[in-house]
Amino acid sequence: MGDAYCSDCKRNTEVVFDHAAGDTVCSECGLVLESRSIDETSEWRTFADDSGDHDPNRVGGPVNPLLGDVGLSTVISKGPNGSNGDGSLARLQNRGGDPDRALVIAFKAIANMADRLSLVSTIKDRASEIYKRLEDQKCTRGRNLDPLVAACIYIACRQEGKPRTVKEICSMANGATKKDIGRAKEFIVKQLKVEMGESMEMGTIHAGDYLRRFCSNIGMNHEEIKAVQETVKKSEEFDIRRSPISIAAAIIYMLTQLTDSKKPLRDISIATTVAEGTIKNAYKDLYPHAAKIIPEWYLKDKDLKSLCSPKA
Fold first, then answer.
1. Is 302's pLDDT higher than 80?
2. Within a 13 Å sphere around the CA of 106, how many CA atoms are in the beta-carbon half?
3. Secondary structure letter of residue 301 according to DSSP
4. What are the boundaries of each domain within the chain?
5. According to the CATH classification, is domain 207-298 in 1.10.472.10?
6. CB 202 within 8 A of CB 159
7. Cα separation of 30 and 297, whole Å?
8. What topology does CATH give the domain 100-196?
């Protein structure tokens, strides 16, 4: 039973779901409000023990076009107490091996890291596609999986226009260092360049690509975020020879100095994963242009003199 608007009764009424016919019927006038609806729930109830891994649903996971069997292979399930229900079948399965086993492990690692970084599915799929192309070239054997997975995600983020810093990805990688990820990235770019016959498109990074996430980490309100975005856009008119992430961090630091709740440089450094010294150097280059790059509407009730002067 549920509620829905009935066009005959001209009001919300209780409806009855006829699962056999797939119809949604008004309980008062009998009008069929929806026909041939699809039931997306399981084929039958799951009576499996919640603590176990046995699930009698006859539907598997989603198909994966990057796997040889499209993810529709059959696996011999475990019996009671973790033992194999049929030992002979399990032995035959193990003997045959799984040609996609390495890919499945890599795709799971990519999915886990993408979840920890709160990445959208398009980035996860792009990273999986990049790793699949490496696997097709037989160049992943003998290499550490974690740096490769982290590098695939880094490249995928840039290609999808949602870049993440190496530090951010390194913090979620299982023991992979920044140097390891950097080397893996160069290796991937080199291998895919050989495959395509041309340089790999990585996507251009702009300071604005990091703003939303950095401002959210610091706890800035909507007005402050808008001011930071406009300031970054204005700063592109000047020859500021600093990395985009350094410029983003320095502008955030600059605008927080104009508010009542001034943020210390250490907090900005932690939120943006940029070293304090790097933020100071970028701030020093931006400071002479402060009056030109900060929006006028934001400066109405604020004084530029409250900006701390950069030390020489």
1. no
2. 28
3. T
4. 3-34, 100-196, 207-298
5. yes
6. yes
7. 60
8. Cyclin A; domain 1 (1.10.472)
